[in-house]
Design the sequence.
């Protein structure tokens, strides 16, 4: 079955995940970095059209294949879009050998107890049903941790696992992303509390359930090794968290078994005015660097 092949790829194959899931709040900044100013478009529809064109340019580049990129996280609108006349998830898997995921969270609540929980997701089940029909393998949802608050971090992890159970009932594999901010004044302490909370909730999962974890690169190398080896964890992936590509790769390479799931660090240096050959070459260089940082052996 296709799903079995996807699971094998996600759990065993060397490589990393491309995060192409900028949402409404982060899209203007991503377009600016791509060389498209706010004044170049008016309204969300035009903004998302430009963003989709950028993503298609990335996904169709020669280096964007399952040989190095084992998965890609899509914005919901991208999941519903097309590449070369095919639904994006179909194109990614059939033409590129890349496993498709979709971002399902609808943004964050204001900070409370040092964390930001996810907003309610009233249309989650409808999104999941559509994702299944489109051949999507899994989902991603993000919360934010700023301070080493046991109560706040427990609330984040509890909410993530509650949604993960709903997602798993649709046959999808959830990526749980409790992001510890890289500039948190209590980053190491927050990571220690988070690791304990994740371990507790993993142990309480129903029999047969598995999740993926997307975590900030820790202050202490190999700090998440117990989670990487956990029987209920398909893969532990790292977010770049605002680090430059060079810094993110350097830090990631010190964490054996953790692979990248980079967004801004993947697209660093890509500009819309580049010729196709220059764009493809720059992207190939970035993919090579991130792949090497993701495949450091124990």
Sequence:
């Amino acid at each position: 079955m296709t799903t079995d092949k996807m699971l094998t790829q996600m759990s065993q194959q060397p490589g990393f995940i491309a995060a192409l899931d900028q949402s409404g709040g982060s899209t203007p900044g991503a377009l600016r970095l791509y060389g498209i100013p706010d004044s170049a478009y008016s309204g969300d529809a035009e903004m998302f059209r430009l963003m989709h064109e950028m993503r298609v340019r990335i996904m169709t580049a020669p280096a964007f294949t399952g040989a190095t990129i084992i998965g890609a996280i899509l914005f919901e609108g991208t999941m519903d879009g097309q590449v070369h006349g095919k639904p994006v998830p179909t194109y990614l898997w059939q033409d590129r050998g890349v496993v498709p995921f979709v971002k399902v969270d609808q943004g964050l609540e204001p900070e409370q107890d040092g964390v930001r929980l996810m907003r309610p997701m009233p249309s989650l089940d409808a999104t999941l049903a559509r994702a299944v029909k489109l051949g999507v393998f899994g989902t991603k949802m993000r919360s934010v941790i700023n301070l080493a608050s046991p109560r706040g971090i427990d609330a984040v992890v509890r909410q993530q696992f509650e949604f993960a159970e709903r997602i798993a009932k649709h046959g999808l594999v959830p990526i749980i992303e409790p992001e510890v901010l890289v500039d948190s004044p209590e980053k190491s302490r927050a990571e220690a509390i988070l690791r304990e909370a994740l371990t507790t909730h993993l142990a309480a999962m129903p029999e047969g359930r598995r999740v993926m974890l997307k975590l900030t690169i820790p202050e202490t190398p190999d700090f998440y090794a117990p989670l990487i080896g956990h029987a209920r964890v398909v893969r532990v992936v790292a977010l770049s968290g605002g680090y430059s590509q060079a810094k993110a790769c350097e830090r990631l390479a010190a964490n054996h078994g953790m692979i990248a799931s980079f967004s801004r660090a993947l697209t660093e240096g890509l500009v819309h005015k580049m010729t196709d050959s220059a764009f493809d070459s720059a992207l190939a260089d970035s993919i090579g660097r991130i792949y090497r940082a993701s495949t450091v052996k124990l």
The chain has one domain: 2-294.
